[in-house]
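Input/output pair, single chain:
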Amino acid sequence: MKNLIVRSITGIFFVAAIVVCFMKPVAMEFLFALVTGLTIWEYCGLVNNVKGVQVNRFISTIAGVYFFLAVGGFCSGIVPSGAVFIPYLLTLIYLFISELYAKTENAINDWAYTMLGQMYIALPFSTINVLAFNATPDGNITFNHLIPLCVFIFLWANDTGAYCTGSLLGRHKLFPRISPGKSWEGSIGGAVIVMAVAYGIGSYESGLDTQTGLSVIQWIGLGLVVVVFGTWGDLVESLFKRTLGIKDSGNILPGHGGMLDRFDSSLMAMPAAVVYLYSLTLF
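Output:
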């Protein structure tokens, strides 16, 4: 009972922080820069427990946070020049060259785990800037909180629907080798809930003067993309933890585990949402 109360309180504060941060671009940048840094720090701590691996935790974290902020500055138009990415590239070069002098057991392992942290965490989190900042026909850039916020709403709806449906009807395992608790029935139930939520958002937005330009069908499509890739994101993190032999990625969020545990689905869903939305402009 105590664990349920702690989990509920943490969940309420977590959801509130995510929702409120999207009201202002500065708040979004600050919160997700912090999330990026904490997640990479947590990741580096986990992989450094692997025999023969010694990732530079501090530099990797700084690099990931800088990359997130650089993408934010570029997408928002505050820093229109691509030169903003040069310090990040120099940091990556440093992380490679430093292995020449570190005398570690296996430099390839260090390089691989270092770059994995940037690709698996920093790059996906940075795509939230692509979702939030949109160019208008007259060349200006506007901040639109609706799409990135809805990605999280879809993920939360999917988790809730999958849990409830799976608990009641779950019979056929979705991916027993990686996550024995997930079922096909739960996944389908979560997808149905998300489609209903997406339909509601699309219908509501169609009567507003917003900048998304998405039809109801396109909103439902976005919801399904988030469901599929969010589920894969959850499974990828489960595989990551199984490979390391751990149950939770951390304990920074009472009752919810670590940062990777909380944001695993979004790490696949956000880049997928970007690809989906850009694909709509091509066809």
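The longest strand covers residues 179-183. The longest helix spans residues 216-244.
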